[in-house]
Fold:
Amino acid sequence: MRRLLSLSLMLFVAVVFLAVPSASAVAVEIDIEDMVIQPSLLTIYVDVSTILGDDNDTATPTISGYVPTRLTADFDPSTQAATVTGIEFYDVPGKKFAIADFDLDVSIFFGAFTGYVDGRGVGGEFNTPPPIPGTVSGTVFTGPQHEAIMNQGTLEYGYTGGDPTTIDLVSFPETGTGTTDGAITVGSPSIVGNQATYGVTLELPFYYSETTIENDVDIFLEMSGTVNAVGQFSRTLLPEVRSCNKITYPFEGMLLPGTDGVIPVSVKLIPA
Structure:
């Protein structure tokens, strides 16, 4: 009898220990590889200046593909609501962005001088250089902390009196850095069983510019726009013991003093 009572008290202490709730949010890292770019347009602008004058042209190709995203977030242990505190973009094989082919043409002084800039198969990945992760305040993150690396396809330009020049982006990548703030939003969780699922929306600024000067010809190329992407992630929730309802005491013949064979507890789901 003394042995049973001692074991019962040990179990009672264990239940009391488990019943102490977590008081603070839990910070975790979340990888979203399938952050899919929604229909988004870039504005690609070229301006060419010569001694004969200048001209410009604009194209608006689509950008598609993926933006693999890593979030640092706090989760409220009561509501499971997420608060994002950091963001990072990283490379995943096969999860690149792609810019539709574009052609830009200029004509100066009634066609005495002509020039062009073409893009073929241009693509790459978004990246966050150190320090990482990039900062987030509310839903806003700092665009200049992140970059777009174009390391696929080619850029070609040419003009009257000059030889065509092709830039192989695989061998000579070009990098652009955002100039405006972006936004990351995590929706309220949808909880089914022990799974909490969150929808994520991203607005990522894209900017690149380059000036080439040769043979008294100035070529200014600029790419700008906002990349819109959506994704989701899920978390497994585990039971956390709280005081309230009852579960049957599992060991036959082991009664706690002053009880009717049950221990007052309840179960709430918390993140794994």
